[in-house]
Amino acid sequence: GGLGGTGGLGASGVPGASGVPGASGVPGGTGGVGGTGGLGGTGGLGASGVPGSMPGRDGEDGADWGMGMFNTPPSRRVMVRKFTANGTYTPTPGMTSCIVEAVGGGGGGGGAGAGNGSTTLGIASAGGGAAYARSYLTAAQIDASQAVTVDTGGPGAPAGANFGTIGGSSSLGALCSAPGGLGGNKGSPGTVANTAGVAGGGPGTGDVLCLGGGSTPALWLGTGIGIVGGSLGGNAGGGFGGGAPGGGFNSNGAVGGNYGGGGAGGCGTYLSAVNNSGGNGGPGIVVVTEFFT
Length: 293
Description:
Blueprint: E1 53-54, E2 63-67, E3 77-83, E4 87-89, E5 95-103, E6 132-138, H1 139-142, E7 146-149, E8 170-172, E9 176-178, E10 193-195, E11 208-210, E12 218-220, E13 227-229, E14 285-292
Antiparallel strand pairs: 1-2, 2-3, 3-14, 4-7, 5-6, 5-14, 6-11, 7-8, 8-9, 10-12, 12-13
């Protein structure tokens, strides 16, 4: 017989089970923290300051350096130059402006004449204090230089009934000037004494001017009574030198204080016939404070 027909396709087999997923990879390690930057180096010390003094010259004391005086900016330099004798002020190179201060010489005290040794004496008055002057000046006003005059103080009167000598002016050119105090009155012998004081110096030339103080009267009320008021020298203007104190019986006048104080007057005694001298007035001064940018 003929061949049988081809059999149909068999049914598809059941799908195989899925494979197990592979294990996850181990996570990578975390990166390390960056190192902290080092601190910056400490800055070096500033340059040393200018030395504190310079040699004096031409009537001038040693000059001093400073910082920030007179309400100036901290970056400004300040140099102080003092004159206690006549000389010439030549600005320090670089000076842009300055303050000049001057005090005149104090007046000399008067001299006291000798009494009769029993009931009379002489008592003189002291000299007046010198004036003070201050000027603010630019380098252009000073120019190349200026003459400096410093008074030494008015001489006290020689022993006896003599007037004291007026103190002279201290100045820087014609830009700043301070007159001296008047000389004390003489003390003529008498059974009582009331010798008038004298005026102080001034006014001078400058932006700020202070008169010198006057001296006090000298007073004695008679035999057997102490000195009621030995004459006190006048104080200088601007808070500078004090006047010399008055003395007691049979005393020569004391010297006025630095700078510009009036010298004390001489004072006699009724116990002996003695002449007494007056004290010299205190010397003057000129101070220049220089400023630099």
